[in-house]
Amino acid sequence: MNLPAKIYSGITVRKLNIAAKPIGDDRWYLGGDPIATAFFNALTITFPQGENFFIDSVRPYRKLAPSGLAREIADFIKQEAMHSSEHAAFNDQIKRAGYDVGILNERVRHELGRFKTRSPIRQLGLTIALEHFTALFARELLAKPHHLENTPYSVRRLWRWHALEEIEHKAVAFDTFLFATRDWSRLRRWAFRSFAMMEASYQFSKVIGLNMRNLFAQDRFRGWFMAARTLRYLFGPAGPLRAMAKGWLAWFFPGFHPWNQDDRALIAPVAAEFTGSID
User: Fold this and answer.
1) pLDDT in tens, 33-63
2) pTM of this prediction?
3) 206 CB contacts (<8 Å, ≥6 apart)?
4) Cβ atoms of 208 and 169 closer than 8 Å
5) Phi-psi bin for 32: left (phi > 0), alpha (psi -120 to 50), beta?
6) pLDDT tens digit sequence for 133-142
7) How is the chain split among helix, strand and coil, in percent rounded to 5?
8) Which are the contacts of 180, defined by CB distance < 8 A and separation ≥ 6?
9) Phi, psi of 173, deg, nearest 5
């Protein structure tokens, strides 16, 4: 089976000490909005462990893959390792802002722990689905800068850097999956990845939702009014999850590939903001 031709192949491994800077004096650093801040906090808490899970799921295929894909897997691993490190530092800033994130970290550890007992291909299935989530969110952040308006400079750089690299490597795990299942029928591959996306969507909603609820409780926000405001933020006219719905549905189309959505126009302008790189 021939792997699909790449639309973009230019993964750059950048080492930037972004998250070491304070997030500022405002506990709700996203423009003073506690809901937006809780959503971004709930996400960043998952990244150190989640990125390491992604690395572990693709690493076994590196030595088996064709040379081009093997190089991309190596660069994917390097980028994800940097993301894990930077978000761990950023999460320390969240703790210093007064949040207890212990239960949130434990939730992520518990949910990922259940997947770590599964077969390598099932772990890769979760990775490709969650990588699609992160690529969609990355596109949303870079295409619509209002999501990061009125945030501290270091916070904005962290998320733009992460989004840039998620777009650069958005097809690597998926191409690894295509290689790993090269002897499968198209129907079997489609059914597997469709199930993987449904399972990943449930896990994403569960973990992020419960993380946000814990953060709201620490801010003493409760009740239906807060729930309604949260749903409006996430799924309203300008909501980030609403904007991702079309891309989520595209996953289930026969012949889907991450680069069917051409994001090259978003890469160069943002890449120019970040000049440091390592081999």
Assistant:
1) 999 999 999 999 999 999 999 999 999 999 9
2) 0.92
3) 111
4) no
5) left
6) 999 999 999 9
7) 70, 0, 30
8) 61, 121, 124
9) -65, -40
